C-alpha cells in the first residue's frame, strides 16, 4: 500500500524527471535549427533583368517532359492574369505593372527551402532535401493527400487533378535528376538570355546579392528575398520594387514553418510517456481504499 | 621611281586606314562579327560592328576598359584608370560561354585578386544585357526575333509556329 508520504515523493520525482526532459528536449530542438547544407547550390534571381520572354517556361517544359502547353511559349497574352504553378508548368512568369517604375516580370517556381514545410507536412516521407539543395519527392510513395500544398508558404506544389486514377503532387525539382546531381544548372537558368538567374553556391550568392545592392543602392530594394524567409531558401530574389508589389509575401516569418509546431510536437512524447504512469498511479491510489471499503461492504452484505 | 610610287601608295593606304579607324586605336577591328553562341535555337547574328562604332564612338560602352578607352564607373577606375588596351578585347575572351559549370564556378571564385569581376555574367548574358539594355535606351530593335530568327528546334521547344498547340474550342466552352 502507498502511503501519503510515498505518493508525494513519487510525484516530486516524476515532476523533476519531466522538467529535466523538457529542458533537454528544448535545448536539443533549439540546436537542431538547420541553416542548409554547407555546399548547397542555389539560384539568385535578379528580377531587374527579366524581360518576360518566357524562355525559362519553354526550357522547363522541355526538360521535365511536361505536357504540351495551352498556348505557345512566345504568346504574351498569358500575362493578362496572374498565374500560379500547375501540374503542367513547374515555373511561370508573371507581369506586374508597378507605378512610376518599369513593368516587372517575376519568375516563380519551387524556392527549395532549407527547412521545407512540404517535407515536414508529408506523412509518407515522400520529400527529401538533398545535399545539393534541391527539394525532391518520390512520386511512388506520394498518396496524393495534398498536405504539402497547404503547408507550402509559397503556394508551389501543384496537383495533377486531370489524372482520374492516380492524382499526384507535381512541382519543380531543381532539375535534380537530369542536371543538378551532375553539377549542372537547371534548364531555366541555362536558357535565360538575360542571365536573370545566377547559379552557384548559396553562400556565394548571398554575398553576391549584397554586393549588387551595395554597388547600386538606387536600383535595388535593400533585401535579398529568401535569404532569411522561412529559414532561408535556395532560390533568392533581388528586386527594384517592394516584394509585396510583385506577388511575394514580404512579411513572412524568418523561422522555418516547422518551428511553429516544433514545441508542441516536442511535448507529445513527454505527455505520452509520463501521463499514463502518473494517472495510473493516481487511479490506483484513489481506487485502492475504495476497493477495500467496497469489499468490506460486500462481505457485510453477504453475511446479512 | 617604282619605290617612290610604292611608298606613295603605302602612305595613302595608311592615311585611309587611319581615317577609317579614327575612333578606336586597335590593330584589326572587324566590320562584321558573326555571333552564334545560341545557334541551338536561333540563327546566328551578323553583327554590324562598324555601324555601332560609328553610332557610339565610344568603345568603352561595350568593351569596358579593355580597349584602353576612358572608363567612367567609379568602381572600375580604381584599377583601370590607366590600365591601357588589353590583348583580349572580344566579348567571348572574358565572358564564359558556360558560366555555371563546376569548373567555371571554381575559376570565378579562385581568381586573383578575389574582389572585382566576381559577379561577371556569362557570354549570352553579356550580349543580351549589353545589347538589349542599350537598344532600349537608344530605340534600337528589342524583340527577340528582331535580331536573331528562331530556328526549327527553337520553334519546337517554344511550341510555336507549326509546332503550336492545336487550338480547340474547349477553353471557350468552359466559360459557359
Describe the structure.
The complex is a heterodimer of chains A (304) and B (176). Chain A contains 7 helices and 9 strands. Chain A is an alpha+beta fold and 304 residues long. A 3-stranded mixed sheet of chain A has the order 8-1-9, covered by helices on one side. In chain A, strands 2-3 form a two-stranded antiparallel sheet. Chain A has a two-stranded antiparallel sheet with strand order 4-5. In chain A, helix 1 packs antiparallel against helix 7. Chain B is built from 10 helices and 2 strands; from the N terminus they run H-E-E-H-H-H-H-H-H-H-H-H. The longest helix of chain B has 19 residues, at 2-20. Classes of the chains: A alpha+beta (304), B mainly alpha (176). At the A-B interface, helix 2, helix 5, strand 8 and helix 6 of A face helix 6 and helix 7 of B.
Concise description?
The complex is a heterodimer of chains A (304) and B (176). With 304 residues, chain A is of the alpha+beta class.
Percent in helix of chain B: 40-55%
Sequence of strands across the biggest β-sheet of chain B: 1-2
Give the ordered list of helices and strands of chain A: HEHEEHEEHEEHEHEH
Largest sheet entry of chain B? 2 strands, antiparallel
Identify the biggest protein-protein contact and residues per side: A-B, 34 and 29 residues
What would you say the CATH architecture of the largest domain in chain A is?
2-Layer Sandwich
Identify low-pLDDT runs of chain B: 16-24, 169-176
According to CATH, what is the topology of the largest domain in chain A?
A: Alpha-Beta Plaits
Assign the structural class of chain A, choosing from mainly alpha, mainly beta, alpha/beta, alpha+beta, or little secondary structure.
alpha+beta
Amino acid at each position: 500500500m502507498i502511503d501519503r508520504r510515498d505518493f508525494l515523493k513519487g510525484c516530486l520525482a516524476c515532476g523533476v524527471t519531466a522538467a529535466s526532459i523538457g529542458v533537454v528536449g528544448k535545448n536539443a530542438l533549439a540546436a537542431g535549427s538547420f541553416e542548409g547544407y554547407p555546399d548547397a547550390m542555389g539560384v539568385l534571381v535578379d528580377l531587374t533583368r527579366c524581360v518576360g520572354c518566357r524562355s525559362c517556361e519553354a526550357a522547363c517544359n522541355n526538360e521535365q517532359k511536361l505536357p504540351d502547353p495551352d498556348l505557345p511559349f512566345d504568346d504574351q497574352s498569358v500575362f493578362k492574369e496572374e498565374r500560379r504553378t500547375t501540374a503542367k508548368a513547374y515555373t511561370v512568369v508573371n507581369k506586374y505593372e508597378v507605378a512610376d517604375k518599369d513593368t516587372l516580370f517575376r519568375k516563380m517556381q519551387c524556392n527549395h527551402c532549407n527547412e521545407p514545410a512540404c517535407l515536414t507536412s508529408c506523412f509518407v516521407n515522400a520529400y527529401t532535401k538533398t545535399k545539393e539543395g534541391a527539394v525532391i519527392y518520390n512520386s511512388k510513395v506520394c498518396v496524393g493527400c495534398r498536405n504539402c500544398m497547404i503547408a507550402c508558404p509559397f503556394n508551389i506544389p501543384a496537383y495533377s487533378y486531370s489524372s482520374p486514377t492516380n492524382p499526384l503532387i507535381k512541382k519543380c525539382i531543381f532539375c535534380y535528376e537530369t542536371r543538378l546531381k551532375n553539377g549542372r544548372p537547371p534548364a531555366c537558368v541555362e536558357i535565360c538570355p538575360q542571365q536573370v538567374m545566377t547559379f552557384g553556391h548559396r553562400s556565394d550568392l548571398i554575398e553576391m546579392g549584397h554586393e549588387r545592392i551595395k554597388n547600386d543602392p538606387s536600383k535595388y530594394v535593400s533585401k535579398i528575398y529568401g535569404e532569411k524567409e522561412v529559414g532561408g531558401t535556395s532560390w533568392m530574389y533581388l528586386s527594384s520594387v517592394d516584394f509585396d508589389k510583385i506577388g511575394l509575401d514580404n512579411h513572412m516569418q524568418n523561422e522555418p514553418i516547422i518551428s511553429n509546431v516544433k514545441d508542441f510536437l516536442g511535448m507529445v512524447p513527454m505527455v505520452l510517456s509520463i501521463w499514463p504512469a502518473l494517472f495510473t498511479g493516481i487511479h490506483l491510489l484513489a481506487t485502492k481504499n475504495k476497493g477495500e471499503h467496497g469489499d468490506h461492504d460486500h462481505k457485510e452484505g453477504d453475511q446479512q | 621611281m617604282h619605290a617612290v610610287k610604292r611608298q606613295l601608295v603605302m602612305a595613302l593606304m595608311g592615311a585611309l586606314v587611319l581615317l577609317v579607324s579614327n575612333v578606336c586605336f586597335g590593330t584589326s577591328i572587324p566590320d562584321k562579327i558573326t555571333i552564334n553562341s545560341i545557334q541551338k535555337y536561333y540563327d546566328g547574328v551578323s553583327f554590324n560592328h562598324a555601324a555601332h562604332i560609328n553610332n557610339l564612338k565610344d568603345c568603352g560602352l561595350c568593351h569596358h576598359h579593355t580597349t584602353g578607352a576612358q572608363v567612367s564607373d567609379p568602381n572600375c577606375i580604381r584599377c583601370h584608370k590607366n590600365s591601357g588596351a588589353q590583348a583580349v578585347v572580344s566579348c567571348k575572351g572574358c565572358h564564359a560561354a558556360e558560366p555555371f559549370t563546376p569548373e567555371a564556378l571554381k575559376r570565378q571564385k579562385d581568381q586573383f585578386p578575389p574582389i572585382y569581376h566576381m559577379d561577371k555574367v556569362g557570354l549570352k548574358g553579356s550580349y543580351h544585357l549589353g545589347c538589349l539594355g542599350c537598344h532600349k535606351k537608344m530605340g534600337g530593335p528589342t524583340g527577340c526575333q528582331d535580331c536573331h530568327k528562331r530556328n526549327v528546334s527553337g520553334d519546337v521547344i517554344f511550341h510555336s509556329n507549326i509546332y503550336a498547340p492545336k487550338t480547340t474550342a474547349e477553353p471557350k466552352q468552359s466559360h459557359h
